[in-house]
Amino acid sequence: MISILRRLSPPPPLLMEPPNSCGGSQRLIALAQQLRLYKPPPLPSSDDIEEQRIEETAGKVVSQVGFAESDTPVARDPEKFRPKRAAVLVCLFEGDAGDLRVILTKRSSKLSTHSGEVALPGGKTEEGDKDDGDTATREAKEEIGLDPKLVNVVTVLEPFLSKHLLRVVPVIGILNEKEAFKPDPNPAEVEAIFDAPLEMFLKDENRTSEEREWMGDKFLIHFFDYETKNKKYMIWGLTAGILIRAASIVYKRPPDFVEQNPRFKVPRVVDRNTTIP
């Protein structure tokens, strides 16, 4: 087994490797080193912003319209709100062909809302969660049976805003020992667990987009068609947006297509019924 990488200085608590973590392949070691250096864009202080409770359906983060918070200047206006917080796990591992892959889920078709949609494991922050990494890995264990000890959390990306204006923090973790992960979907929430190549979200293949408008500003929603083991999946909205950003950071290049994120103003009155169309 390869020993844990030594560091010149202690990282922040979120970036600490789990006690049982091992180094993995040389490529995964290099990727972990690269991602630990990533610094998400800072958000303005929101100490003086009045908090308003924004609810997300069933407390889960599902695939829907979502944008990087830097493209939606909610926190920059003291008249707006401090949204509720959630985290999703972008869990990467090395495939048999040597490519980087990400773990995804398909929500149960029995759910009354957002049934059958593709999502990253994740959900709302709960009391007792130490940080966003704790939230993301806890939810992954609940949803797909992924032991948090197997996941080396290396960084977080800038928050995204979901359709219902929930602040969603993408947490990037590395699964060094993919054979140790025995998928165990929670049937109440998850219908299927699958993985896809991360680089797919930078390519213009099997991708379509739809232009929408909100408050006079146009933006694009991206849809990725993916087929594996004779099953077809549609990856879009919030999940697609997060994976486009994650892939751009991992591969250090922009996507082959135009993202066209919105730079709109949030409505003056924001409540639990406010959504991005």
TrEMBL record:
GO terms for molecular function: coenzyme A diphosphatase activity; guanosine-3',5'-bis(diphosphate) 3'-diphosphatase activity; metal ion binding. InterPro entries: CoAse, NUDIX_hydrolase-like_dom_sf, NUDIX_hydrolase_dom. Keywords: Hydrolase, Magnesium, Manganese, Metal-binding. This is Nudix hydrolase domain-containing protein. Residues 113-139 are annotated as: Disordered. One of its GO terms (biological process) is coenzyme A biosynthetic process. GO terms for cellular component: cytoplasm. Its cofactor is Mn(2+); Mg(2+). Residues 83-221 form the Nudix hydrolase domain. It comes from Malus domestica.
